[in-house]
Every structure is written in structure tokens, then in C-alpha cells.
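Troubleshooting log. The previous structure file for this entry was overwritten by mistake, so regenerating from the original sequence record. Sequence copied from the archived sheet and checked twice against the printout by T.R.
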Amino acid sequence: MSESSVIAAVTEFLLYKGCLVIRFNSGAVLPDDNGAGRFVPFNRWQVLGQDEEIAGVSDLFALTPAGVWLIIEAKDIGKRANVSPAQRRFLAECAARGAVCCIACGVEDVERALEGVGVE
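Regenerated output below.
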């Protein structure tokens, strides 16, 4: 299953469970800016007192009916190990603030992550 297929399946599952789902598209563009050649990132994140990160934001954020944030980094089946250091750092920062975080290669990974947080 491709990453885009994982995202689509997980999104459908979360919506069925009554979650509010937010999809983050990461990347950058090179605008036509008279040759300045400067990439502009789609999103950034920062922890107060630390350097700004321009990579690592997870693919899906879901707010469950129980008020729990679920942060999901989607990966192709068999590519779970391909999570970048920036992605791991982002997941760790979210988990430190109470979010449930997972790396998902399919709906089953999200189901396991949601066990015990009020989503039936």
C-alpha cells in the first residue's frame, strides 16, 4: 500500500469513528521570484527556545470525540523504518504534550494507537 493509500484509508477510518481529521501536506515551492532561488516551505514548527524546524510535521492530525489528539506519520507498507529524525522529533514533542502518536502503515496501526483512549 502506498503512503497516499495509507493516508486515504486511515482518514476514512478516523472520519467513520467521528474524529476531526486534518491533513498536512509538507514540502516547499520555488516561487518565480526573479531568480532569488529561495524555497518557501509549506509549514514549519517550533518549540519555544529551540531552533525552528522546517521538516517533520506529520501527515495527519485527528481530534477524537473524547478530545484526544492523535498524530499520525503515514508510511508505505514495509517502510516504517524510513521515518526521518525530524519526523521522529516532531512525534516525540507531540507525545510529550499528551498526544497519542503513531507511525501507520495501515488502519490496524491506528486502531492499536487508539486502544484505551475512548474511541470505539
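The beta strands are 20-23, 28-29, 40-41, 60-63, 69-74, 100-104. Archived copy saved in two places this time.
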